[in-house]
Amino acid sequence: MNRAWFDEYIATFNSGDFALCKSRFFTSDVVLQGAKVHAQGDEMIGFLSAMRKTVREEIDILVAAFTDNHILAEAKMSFIADHDAPDFFLEPLRAGEVIQVRYMLSYTLVGDRICKIRTYRWPVGQGLDA
Questions:
Q1: What's the structural domain count of the chain?
Q2: Which phi and psi angles does 19 have, rounded to 5°?
Q3: Which of 57, 75, 86, 124 has the highest count of CB atoms within 10 angstroms of its CB?
Q4: Residue 66: what pLDDT?
């Protein structure tokens, strides 16, 4: 994959159009693996859509490396609470609060589709100035 394709994916993800992400960028059985979440296929889309009802997630890619079937990216993620989110997976948020977290994101590709996303993160609020 190339940077233009990846930038299109990130813009689509940031817009919250997870149906388009599913149809354009993900395999049907895409897997999301992180410290606090493991979801696959429609369950992953459901997780993202449910979160988006209260908290918007915005990915800002700082650097990315590409091979034929992998993308490794370092990102600053912003989580913006549009509504109170007392059960938010990182920490409880009140409407209007924003937290930022540094992430390493690993994407495994099959052709031009993402089949696995692995997330690794710094503790909330740490590593943002590096």
A1: 1
A2: -65, -40
A3: 75
A4: 96
Cα–Cα distances in angstroms (integers) from residue 11 to residues 5, 17, 51, 121, in the given order: 10, 9, 17, 21
Euclidean distance between CA atoms 72 and 116, whole angstroms: 12
Beta-bridged to residue 120, according to DSSP, are 104
Structure-derived torsion over alpha carbons of residues 88, 89, 90, 96, reported in degrees to the nearest 10: -20
DSSP characters over 13-24: HHHT-HHHHHHH
Do residues 99 and 91 make contact, with C-beta atoms less than 8 angstroms apart? yes
Task: Classify residue 129: in a domain, yes or no.
Answer: no
Question: pLDDT at position 130, please?
Answer: 54
CATH of the domain at 36: 3.10.450.50
> Collapsing DSSP states into helix, strand and coil, what is residue 117?
strand
> From CA 32, how far away is CA 117, in angstroms rounded?
5
Higher pLDDT, 37 or 10: 10
Q: pTM, whole model, 2 decimals?
A: 0.91
Q: Which of 82, 59, 79, 83 is CA-nearest to residue 71?
A: 59
